[in-house]
Design brief:
17 helices, alpha+beta, 7-stranded mixed beta sheet
Length: 477
């Protein structure tokens, strides 16, 4: 598919055929010169055909092929005249990342890093179908879906400052458990407080480099500091909600007279009963995911104290931020110079709000919203900050991670004959995992170069580099 460079870090898919707007891909010339996945570009063009889409169908430098929308896709639809699509959110609703920073330095934990990773692996359930220690009655399940991270803090699993430094305060108020199926509730009842499998992880890291001293100071980050980064989502509950509504919308969309280039883009008008039911169910899954990550952070705090034999004051672990990857949000943005209420789909993309935005925690409002970008387990992760240019160019959005470059099957083939855990150990990274093929599927080679991805969004001006984190301990499902 033809790409036209329109700025040094942005390429356009010209509007053709049924496209209502052009496509735009944020990436560096170096990344554009490498192999760009043709199927993902086609998906960007397909999204551009949906009713009510505004400005452009967008993709970030970590984009790759996904269900309906590309992973790394961003699209904003007029709230009154546009659509909402489960394919634009994804199966793992509010898959997201949470970062906590400690008062410790690498020298404080390096002698016990093996024991720390063992302890985290023992105390945090991981893997396919894993179940946690938090068992929910039906009544409590409904409370989790309504209250999100706030529920976990009320149960003693966290601090009020944790939810204050979570996107949306850890709770979407639109949540309505009455639209969630019994099967979804059942799947969620035993999985709260579990990491999951695949690309989900908990990572002990070190602040390796500071790029923006003012933002890093606001976020409580300093060089050689020990951090905890965790990546998980809404588990089987979110998957089931997506599955339920895709089945419904595949039939529903046929009644709307919309010609779809791909049935995976099944959708409903946002303001319709069908659209609002999905939005309210999606909010339930988002709240479940925030509660899940809140519990995971609480377990990590406990484990650090147990293994290191220190108290909360010496550990000084504070949450920096928690951010969504897969979500649709009701937001107000300037479109052609006028404020407009829109539904922003971010699938494998994150929010990047500029300094001064009221949705940013007060402690960070002067510098902008923290953005958390995990890489692969063998290289680095990044902390970025939101910018005004993101508000004008990408509906306040940026990338979400490194992005896959190899399928899981291709990664397993490439890993044959290699001991990935030993390769990581040679780099000073201790890893524990559950699934037999997890390390092969998630090996560093399976992902794009995180440094290039971050340079792309930094160069485009839709987020700015704050700090680089180097992994020293990882647990995977």
């Amino acid at each position: 598919m033809k790409l036209k460079q329109i700025t040094p870090y942005c390429y356009e898919i010209p509007r053709t055929g049924a496209m209502r707007v052009p496509g735009r891909v944020f990436m560096s010339p170096r990344m554009a010169g490498q192999m760009v996945e043709e199927e993902a570009l086609k998906q960007v063009a397909n999204v551009a055909t949906l009713p009510g889409i505004l400005t452009a169908a967008m993709a970030m430098p970590d984009m790759h092929w996904g269900y309906g929308f590309p992973i790394g896709g961003v699209a904003a639809f007029d709230w009154d005249e546009g659509v909402i699509s489960p394919g634009g959110v994804g199966y793992d609703i509010n898959c997201g990342v949470r970062l906590a920073a400690t008062g410790l330095e690498e020298k404080d934990i390096r002698p016990k890093i093996d024991l720390l990773v063992e302890g985290l692996f023992a105390n945090i359930p991981s893997g396919v179908g894993s179940t946690g220690s938090v068992k929910l009655s039906t009544k409590e399940s409904l409370r989790v879906l309504r209250e999100g991270g706030r529920w976990a803090v009320r149960q003693g699993m966290g601090e009020p400052s944790d939810v204050a430094r979570t996107e949306d305060g850890g709770c979407m108020d639109a949540a309505d458990p009455s639209v969630v199926s019994p099967r979804a509730l059942e799947r969620g009842s035993k999985q709260l407080g579990t990491l999951g499998s695949g690309n989900h992880f908990l990572e002990v890291g070190v602040v390796d480099e500071i790029f923006d001293a003012a933002a890093a100071s606001a976020f409580g980050l300093f060089e050689n500091q020990i951090t905890v980064l965790l990546h998980s989502g809404s588990r089987g509950l979110g998957y089931q909600i997506c599955d339920d509504f895709l089945a419904f919308m595949n039939k529903h969309v046929k009644t709307l007279g919309i010609q779809l280039p791909d049935r995976q883009l099944s959708c409903a008008m946002i303001r319709s009963d069908a659209g609002q039911r999905y939005f309210r169910a999606m909010a339930c899954a988002a709240n479940y995911a925030w509660a899940n990550r809140q519990i995971l952070l609480h377990r990590a705090r406990e484990t650090f104290q147990q293994v290191l034999g220190i108290g909360p004051r010496e550990l000084a672990m504070h949450q920096v931020y928690d951010i969504c990857h897969n979500i649709a949000k009701r937001e107000t943005h300037l479109v052609d110079g006028q404020p407009r209420v829109v539904c922003v789909h971010r699938k494998g993309a994150t929010r990047a709000f500029a300094p001064g935005h009221p949705a940013i925690p007060e402690a960070y409002r002067q510098v902008g919203q923290p953005i958390l970008i995990p890489g692969d387990m063998g290289t680095a992760s990044y902390v970025l900050v939101g910018t005004q240019k993101a508000m004008t160019e990408s509906f306040g959005s940026t990338c979400h991670g490194a992005g896959r470059v190899l399928s899981r099957t291709a990664a397993k083939k490439r890993s044959r004959g290699r001991a990935i855990h030993r390769e990581l150990a040679d780099k000073g990274i201790i890893v524990k995992w559950t699934g037999r093929s997890t390390l092969a599927e998630e090996m560093p080679d399976a992902y794009k170069d995180i440094d290039q991805v971050v340079e792309s969004v930094h160069g485009a001006g839709i987020s700015k580099k704050v700090a680089r984190l180097r992994p020293i301990g990882v647990i995977k499902g």
